[in-house]
Recover the amino acids of this structure.
C-alpha cells in the first residue's frame, strides 16, 4: 500500500467536500462576471473525481492525480476542464516516484506552467493565475531557498494564494469571460482564483493529516474573508 | 416557451441519435460519446479534418461530415465546448496515419479543450495541426478581450480544408489552405430576437419589439450595438460595410458571399437580404463568384442573419467549388 497514494486520495476527498460546501459561493462569484456555472461544474467534477479515485486499486500518488485530472477534464465544462483537469494530468508524471519536497515543487511548477500556457494568462489578468502564481513561487522559494519543511512551505503558499485572490478584486480582467465586461470587471473577485485557493487549503489540511500534525484553522470549511473593496 | 423537446438534459443526445438515424450510411457515433464520424472513416492515405463545438448551431458541425468536408465532429452541450476527452476520441478516430487538422472556432472553452486533447493525442503519436477561425468582425481584437469569435466563416474553412485533404494533400498543405480562408473571410451578424436554450426555456437576452441587435455572436450573447428596427436593406448595408471594411478590399476581387440564417428566419427574408448584398458587392466593384443563402451556422431559434464575405483567389475557388457530399452541404 502506497502511503502517498492514500494521502493523495484523502486530499481529493477533502477538496470534493470543500468545493461542494462552497458551491453556492463560487456560483455567486461567477454570476457577477460570467455564466454562473463555476460552482456547479466544479462541485460535480470533484465529486466524480473522488468517486473515481475511490475505485482505484491501491494507486500511487501519480495515478490518483492523473485520475482526478482526467475526470475533471471529462466532467467540468468550458475552460475549467482543461485548466484544472488537463493541467493535473500533465503534471501528474512529476509524482511518478512518489511525493517528496523536490517532486512536489516540480509538480507545482509544471501545473502552473500548464495553466498559464493553456489559458495564455499572466499575473494581473484577473484569473486563477493570480492565486496560483504566488502560491507556487512561494512554495518553491520556501523549500529551495529558505529550506522550510514541506508543510511550512505549503502553509506559506496558501497564505500567498489568499493574497492573490484579494488582488483579483481591484484589477481589470484581461482573460476569461470577465474580460468581455471591460472596466466593469473591476471590483469582482475571480471565481477560478477563489476555487484554486480552496483546493490549496485542502491540500494543506490533507498534508497535515498525513504527516500527523495539528489540524489547522484552514480546514474549517468556510472561505477566508476577502474585502470587496479596498479598505 | 414551447419547445419540441423531451427532457432538456437529453436534447443533444437525442439530436445526435436522430441525426445518425437520418444518415445511417454516412454517419456513425462513437460509443458513449457525443462524437460523430463518417461511417467509412478513417480513409486511408487521407489527412483527417475534424471540428467541434457547442450544440445549437446545426447543421454545424456534424452536418458537414462527408466527402469533401469533415471526417468527424464533436458536439458539446448546448453552447458549451465539448470536453477534452471527447475531442481526443474524435482526433484518434479520424487519424489514418496521415495526421489530423482540427478546425477550432475562437472561443476560450473550445480552444483550451481542443489544445488539451491535441497534446494528449500527440503523446499517443498522432500528428495534429490546428487552425483557429476568428471571422467575426464585430468583436474588437485587443489585449483586453479573448479575440474575435469564430462564426459562419468556419463553414468555408471546413470546405476548403476538406477539399484539399480529399485531393490527397499532406497535413501542412491542408492547414495552409485552411489558414488562407481564415485570413480572407469576415462575418457580421444581427438578431431580431434572442434565442431560447432548452435548459433555460426563456430568451437569453431581452430585445424589445422595436429593437434589433447588431454584432451578435452565435450563443445568445448580446451584440455590440442595439438600435431601432431597420429595414432589410439598412441592416444589409450595416453588416456588409463592416465586413468589407475589415477585409480591406480594393475592388476587382472575386468573392463568395453567404447570407446565413440564425435558425428562426424564413428563407424569404434571407433572399431579400441577399438581393441587397449582391447590389452592394457590385457597388464596391467586386464580383460574386458564388452566393450561398441558407441556414449554415445557426443559434437555435434566433431570428436574424449574418453576412459572410470571403475574398478568393484561384486556389480558393478550386477548393470551395470542389465536390462535397454531406448532409448539410452538397456541391457537384
Amino acid at each position: 500500500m502506497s502511503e502517498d497514494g492514500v494521502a493523495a486520495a484523502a486530499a481529493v476527498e477533502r477538496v470534493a467536500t470543500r468545493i461542494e460546501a462552497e458551491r453556492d459561493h463560487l456560483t455567486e462569484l461567477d454570476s457577477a462576471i460570467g455564466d454562473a456555472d463555476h460552482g456547479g461544474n466544479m462541485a460535480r467534477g470533484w465529486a466524480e473525481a473522488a468517486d473515481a479515485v475511490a475505485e482505484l486499486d491501491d494507486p500511487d500518488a501519480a495515478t490518483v492525480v492523473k485520475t482526478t485530472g482526467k475526470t475533471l477534464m471529462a466532467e467540468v465544462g468550458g475552460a475549467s476542464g482543461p485548466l484544472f483537469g488537463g493541467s493535473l494530468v500533465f503534471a501528474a508524471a512529476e509524482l511518478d516516484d512518489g511525493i517528496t519536497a523536490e517532486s512536489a515543487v516540480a509538480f507545482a511548477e509544471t501545473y502552473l506552467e500548464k495553466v498559464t500556457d493553456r489559458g495564455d494568462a499572466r499575473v494581473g489578468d484577473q484569473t486563477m493565475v493570480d492565486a496560483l502564481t504566488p502560491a507556487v513561487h512561494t512554495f518553491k522559494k520556501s523549500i529551495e531557498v529558505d529550506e522550510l519543511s514541506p508543510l511550512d512551505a505549503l502553509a506559506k503558499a496558501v497564505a500567498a494564494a489568499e493574497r492573490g485572490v484579494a488582488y483579483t478584486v481591484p484589477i481589470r480582467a484581461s482573460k476569461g469571460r470577465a474580460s468581455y465586461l471591460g472596466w466593469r470587471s473591476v471590483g469582482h473577485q475571480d471565481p477560478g482564483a477563489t476555487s484554486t485557493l480552496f483546493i490549496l487549503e485542502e491540500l494543506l489540511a490533507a498534508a497535515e493529516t498525513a504527516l500527523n500534525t495539528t489540524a489547522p484553522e484552514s480546514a474549517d470549511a468556510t472561505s477566508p474573508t476577502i474585502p470587496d473593496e479596498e479598505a | 416557451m414551447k419547445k419540441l423537446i423531451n427532457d432538456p438534459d437529453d436534447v443533444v443526445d437525442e439530436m445526435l441519435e436522430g441525426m445518425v438515424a437520418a444518415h445511417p450510411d454516412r454517419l456513425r457515433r462513437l460509443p458513449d460519446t457525443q462524437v460523430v464520424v463518417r461511417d467509412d472513416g478513417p480513409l486511408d492515405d487521407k489527412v483527417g479534418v475534424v471540428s467541434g463545438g457547442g450544440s445549437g448551431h446545426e447543421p454545424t458541425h456534424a452536418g458537414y461530415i462527408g466527402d469533401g468536408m469533415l471526417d468527424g465532429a464533436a458536439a458539446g452541450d448546448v453552447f458549451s465546448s465539448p470536453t477534452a476527452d471527447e475531442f481526443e476520441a474524435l482526433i484518434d478516430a479520424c487519424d489514418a496515419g496521415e495526421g489530423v487538422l482540427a478546425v477550432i472556432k475562437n472561443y476560450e472553452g473550445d480552444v483550451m479543450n481542443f489544445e488539451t486533447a491535441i497534446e494528449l493525442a500527440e503523446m499517443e503519436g498522432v500528428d495534429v495541426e490546428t487552425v483557429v477561425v476568428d471571422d467575426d468582425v464585430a468583436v474588437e481584437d485587443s489585449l483586453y478581450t479573448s479575440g474575435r469569435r469564430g462564426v459562419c466563416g468556419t463553414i468555408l474553412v471546413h470546405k476548403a480544408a476538406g477539399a484539399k485533404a480529399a485531393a490527397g494533400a499532406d497535413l501542412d498543405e491542408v492547414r495552409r489552405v485552411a489558414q488562407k480562408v481564415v485570413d480572407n473571410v469576415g462575418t457580421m451578424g444581427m438578431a431580431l430576437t434572442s434565442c431560447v436554450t432548452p435548459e433555460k426555456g426563456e430568451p437569453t437576452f431581452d430585445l424589445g419589439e422595436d429593437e434589433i441587435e447588431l454584432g451578435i455572436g452565435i450563443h445568445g450573447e448580446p451584440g455590440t450595438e442595439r438600435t431601432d428596427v431597420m429595414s432589410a436593406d439598412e441592416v444589409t448595408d450595416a453588416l456588409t460595410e463592416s465586413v468589407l471594411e475589415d477585409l480591406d478590399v480594393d475592388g476587382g476581387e472575386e468573392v463568395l458571399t453567404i447570407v446565413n440564417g440564425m435558425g428562426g428566419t424564413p428563407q424569404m427574408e434571407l433572399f431579400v437580404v441577399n438581393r441587397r448584398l449582391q447590389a452592394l458587392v457590385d457597388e464596391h466593384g467586386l464580383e460574386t463568384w458564388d452566393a450561398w443563402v441558407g441556414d449554415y451556422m445557426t443559434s437555435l431559434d434566433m431570428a436574424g442573419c449574418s453576412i459572410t464575405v470571403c475574398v478568393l483567389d484561384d486556389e480558393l475557388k478550386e477548393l470551395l467549388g470542389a465536390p462535397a457530399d454531406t448532409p448539410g452541404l452538397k456541391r457537384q
Chain A has one domain: 3-211. The CA atoms of residues 160 and 199 of chain A lie 13 Å apart.
